[in-house]
Specification:
Blueprint lengths: L3 E6 L4 H10 L5 E7 L9 H4 L22 H6 L4 E4 L3 H13 L3 E4 L12 E2 L1 H4 L14 E4 L2 H16 L2 E10 L11 H4 L3 E2 L5 H12 L2 E2 L3 E2 L4 E9 L5 E9 L5 H8 L16 E3 L8 H4 L8 E9 L2 E8 L3 H17 L4
Parallel strand pairs: 1-2, 1-3, 3-4, 4-6, 5-6, 7-11, 13-14
Antiparallel strand pairs: 7-12, 8-11, 9-10, 12-15, 14-15
Helix pairs in contact: 1-11, 6-8, 6-9
The structure holds NADP nicotinamide-adenine-dinucleotide phosphate (NAP).
NADP nicotinamide-adenine-dinucleotide phosphate binds next to helix 1, helix 4 and helix 11.
Pfam families: Semialdhyde_dh, Semialdhyde_dhC
GO biological process, one term: methionine biosynthetic process
EC number: 1.2.1.11
Length: 342
């Protein structure tokens, strides 16, 4: 297969650094453009990025010069797929402009997620929603879900399909990298828990219902209640969530386990984890430090399953910048290629 040329917008950021790491040796994609803010334009990647990962900057990315967020400049590089990981304020215009030029835009940004004609994709859960793109040449944006929604829907999908859901309550403990490089000052988060993340609770509720809803010419949201309570905690990477789910009928833990584990891997896609959901039986798992890199950061780990009547409780852990952002977007791009859409 001929490699597809790809660009990354916001390449120096928390999510951008995951793209740079995951795409450096990708078998299907060849990075031809990295873009960032005016602060970075013209600098080499190694000069501009405040690298925070514990693996070094990939050698072939170090000397790449950063481009501005300009649709003509990006299009001229020959990129056919663009990954967008810039702040929302910068995202709307550039994503629309690139899509209007026929480029395939896969966005981590929140700005288009709830638009009626734009699919919001967690590949193993709702790849069939890509049908919403009827005429790819008329504009092409696929959105990734919010980082705390991704792990949640990966664990709810099998429960919804096999048993049924009435209500889902979720309490999140979200890592600092989820707020971006300069998102949470160290003086605010060290020795602390901040029980508020702006707009996050609303995003989790509406995105979960869109992803687990149906698409038949238009999106119809799933028919259960989702309520979230979100907190920022002093963890670098990996969002933990405590989930309380009211199931639609009587069941037992064996069936619940089988339902959660029933999410199918996507065969043949290089970044697809197998299995996508990992169940752990130890009473003190999942934990961010121990479990965030499960499935190279692409799998969601579930533990502490407890059933009281029809109320199921469990904990999950999902890597926010890998599975919750760049990794999910790369998996979407692999899916697009495999379906002949990119
Ligand atoms: N962090 C997560 O876990 C996560 C998960 C899901 C989705 N997201 C979404 O992904 C996006 C990026 O998040 P992040 O955490 O990576 O943020 P970040 O660490 O703050 O990085 C932001 C990136 O965007 C660039 N940028 C900032 N302002 C810009 C502007 N006006 N024009 C062009 N480029 C600009 C920055 O370039 P400079 O380095 O030059 O400033 C940097 O490359 C956001 O939309 C966020 O909501 C994040």
């Amino acid at each position: 297969m001929q490699k597809r040329k790809v660009a990354v917008l916001g390449a120096t950021g928390m999510v951008g650094q995951i793209y740079v790491s995951m795409l450096a040796e990708h078998p299907w994609f060849d990075v031809v453009a990295l873009a960032a803010s005016e602060r970075s334009v013209g600098k080499t990647y190694a000069e501009a990025a405040k690298w925070y990962r514990d693996t070094p900057i990939p050698e072939r990315m170090r000397d790449v010069r950063l481009l501005p967020l300009d649709a003509d400049v990006i299009a001229q590089t020959g990129a056919s797929i663009v990954f967008s990981a810039v702040p929302s304020e910068a995202a709307f215009e550039i994503e629309k402009a690139l899509s209007a030029r026929g480029l395939r835009v896969v966005a981590d940004t929140a700005v288009h997620r709830m638009e009626p004609q734009i699919p919001l994709i967690v590949p193993e859960v709702n790849h069939h929603h890509l049908e919403a793109i009827r005429n790819p040449d008329a504009g092409f944006i696929v959105s990734c879900a919010n980082c705390s929604t991704v792990g949640l829907v990966m664990t709810l999908a099998g429960l919804q399909r096999r048993i049924g859901l009435e209500k889902v309550y979720v309490s999140t403990m979200q890592a600092v990298s989820g707020a971006g490089y300069s998102g949470v000052p160290s003086m605010a988060i060290l020795d602390n828990v901040i029980p508020f993340i702006r707009n996050e609770e609303e995003k989790i509720a509406r995105e979960t219902l869109k992803i687990l809803g149906s698409y038949q010419g238009e999106f119809k949201q799933a028919d259960f209640t989702v309520l979230a309570s979100c907190a920022r905690v002093g963890v670098l990477d990996g969002h933990s969530e405590a989930v309380f789910a009211e199931l639609s009928r009587d069941t037992d833990l064996e069936e619940v386990r089988a339902a959660i584990a029933s999410l199918e891997p996507l065969p043949g896609l290089p970044s697809a984890p197998n299995p996508p959901v990992v169940l752990r039986d130890e009473p003190d798992r999942p934990q961010p430090r121990l479990d965030r890199m499960t499935g190279r950061g692409m799998a969601t780990t579930v533990g502490r399953l407890r059933l009281d009547g029809r109320t199921l409780r469990y904990n999950l852990l999902s890597h926010n910048t890998i599975r919750g952002a760049a990794g999910n977007a790369i998996l979407i791009a692999e899916l697009l290629v495999s379906k002949g859409l990119a």
